[in-house]
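Aim 2 progress update. The chain analyzed this quarter is reproduced below.
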Amino acid sequence: MATASVAFKSREDHRKQLELEEARKAGLAPAELDEDGKEINPHIPQYMSSAPWYLNAEKPSLKHQRKWKSDPNYTKAWYDRGAKIYQAEKYRKGACENCGAMTHNTKACMDRPRKLGAKWTNKHIAPDEKIETFELDYDGKRDRWNGYDPSTYARVIERYEARDEARRKYLKEQQLKKLEEKDNNQNGEGEVSDEEDDEDSLKIDEAKVDESKQMDFAKVEKRVRTTGGGSTGTVRNLRIREDTAKYLLNLDVNSAHYDPKTRSMREDPLPDSDPNEKFYEGDNQYRVSGQALEFKQLNIHAWEAFEKGQDVHMQAAPSQAELLYKNYKVNKEKLKSHTKETIFEKYGNAASEEEIPRELLLGQSERQVEYDRAGRIIKGQETALPRSKYEEDVYINNHTSVWGSWWKDHQWGYKCCRQMIRNSYCTGSAGIEAAEAATDLMKANIARKEATEEKSPQTEEKKLATWGTDVAEDLVLDQKLLAEALKKEDERKREERDERKRKYNVKWNDEVTAEDMEAYRMKRVHHDDPMKEFLN
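Predicted structure tokens:
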């Protein structure tokens, strides 16, 4: 016998409990009762899921293992959709400011937002909704059909019955048409045609029988995964014997290699033939098509995800890797479609033949349309003039005209003060007078300066021949200065080749004479010169 484990305060309590159990066994003490008032059989453990076969199966109480009593507070009722309880005539304090119902606030109101709510108009007060609360049991919370009206399914049945009836009617009409055509076209040859139809149907049936007999043409009985006997399995050889073997497709010695041990030919034996006429393109073709390609992409995705830090392993958790790959493809398609839709919304779809909306053709529309509960237009049917997206008749900084109302010397400005600076403060007519006075003063100063200024005699500048220009024909060079310039050019090039010969204190002169320029031209290396290798 197994008893429930109870924590006793002392050994005396434990001894008394054992004596009570012994007395119950001998029948000297009343038996222990369960929740229903029935005696508990002490020989049956209370934690067992089923009573032993040799004991009375009606007595054991297993109801303690779960909540077996149904709570009377639980209900299977559902909400009364659309029910109203009270219709008020005036607005009540605390009610919805939009519709006037007491069962919700303005934020949770589902009615159309009114221009003036019921709080201010005191008209068209909406009735109060019926609010119910249910205490559902375990099954009621998880019942997906709770609140479903079975009578609504009758409409589904009617729709399918109407479809079936229309189909039967159509088939009957087609049969009648065929019978009428046969009667009209073949009056005397009806018997012959019927016999021919019977013969054709028999031929078709015989062909079906022949195909069914040939289903097991390559059935081979073999022992499968057995050691020295055991169950036999059926292995089907799916290759038709009429097909040409892969090693006989191309008898050229230098063609695709055939491995007789594995019976594999990886390359295409006929690479130059038409691909539409080939039925075999090599074993490698199977690896880059079908499920093999999908499995390869799955492996690559698992490797890349593992390298980026995700705990994915194709061999350890293949289901997880496949699920992640499916989610990746779904998210990729969503992102691609979202990007495509965003581009279409922004720039439009030139390929579609949809008519451009009137709002896009005529600019932004601020027309407001009001509808009643039935969907009819109450207000807003008249067409509104299109308005610009820019604010109109808005003046800033004390101006009385907008920017761009004044134009002078290729510059825009304000007409009210004739200022050319954007967002400047308006100075009015006083600003216009001050600007005109400043302009007159500036013109007078310029005229006075031009009158008192003496014109300096124009000196003719000597233009020396520089690099990249043509040398003047009348250019006269000093031979002594030219020889010194050639020496300086040689020293400069020597310093460029070996910087160790450059002196510590370098004197730099930026004046270039005609002799220096001629020395530079003479020492310069022309890359197109065929004799440039012999210059040095």
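The beta strands are 84-86, 128-129, 219-223, 232-236, 370-371, 377-379, 406-408, 411-413. The longest helix spans residues 153-185. These observations will guide the mutagenesis experiments scheduled for the next reporting period.
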